[in-house]
Fold these 2 entries.
Entry 1:
Amino acid sequence: MRYGVTAVYSLAAACALISTGCTAHHPSAAPAPASGHPRPQTTGRAALESEAQRTVQIELADDGRFHPAEVGVRAGEIVTFELTNHGRQEHEFTVGDLNAQELHEYQMATMNMAGMHHGDMSHLGKDHEKYMEGLAKRTAELDRVAGANASVHVPPGETRRLTWAFTSQELPVFGCHLPGHWAAGMKGTFVHA
Ligand SMILES: [Cu+2]
């Protein structure tokens, strides 16, 4: 598990980020209901493949990188991404602004924590409780500001497609949020072509 150590670092980093980011007062630690409101389409929107003007191939690999990691696009164009996973691990491809990426990362982390700590969590103590509270708060904050996103899981050896409409001058980024992957740098950028 080459991402094992990184995953721990990632959680520690998230914890540090949350504890500094959550010193302000918030009325409630409860996460906002997911997708209770339409997300602002600040960097575009998911689109139908039939709308796409071209296809861009991106390879996902176990080196924790996208190939290519930089893709040129024109504002207004609709692109289908053909994503092939050449690795032995599951990867994913998420398009969205940085808030959307962070939200997705925390939602995955929350799911992982829940999966890891089934049953009695009392032995984990106050620090863990605080960490989970911070995670919930930050997730709720991000849920209010994150823009539209689209995501697809790509199992090892398989190809998936995702279509995105770049409706804005502001460009999204892309990344993989399998545990530890984003923190280890499995991300990419769009640039104006
Ligand atoms: Cu990945």
Entry 2:
Amino acid sequence: MLPPRCCTPSSPHGRSTPIPSRSLRDLPNQTAFVEEALRSALGRTCPTCEGAGRTRWASVAVSDFKQRALPRLDRDGAVQLKSLVRLSRELAASTLDLAPRREAPGFDFSVQRGRAVLLRGTLAGNTTTFHAN
Ligand SMILES: [Zn+2]
């Protein structure tokens, strides 16, 4: 299955061009190349797909409740988790990791895209709290 489309190559996100080792003079269109390289360096390359136009992950992997021995979700918790999964999808995250909290009800979570942790937080009762990452 192909991962979902991200931005289109013609969108303002732009496409990143790998800088080849050969000299700039050998390139057929120096101006476009330099413009592209500058745009990329200035951070205008889409951070989600890195210019590829497709996100790398087809879906968000959520921790298995049984496997991780996580406490049962109550109704409020289920509503919070549902929003958190939706947010993770919006962020094109690859993983939503849940862990039981020590001596407190609820879960600690982290939302990751590959190895990068996008955000961390706590899910307890009817409240989701985001922690500075
Ligand atoms: Zn993109």
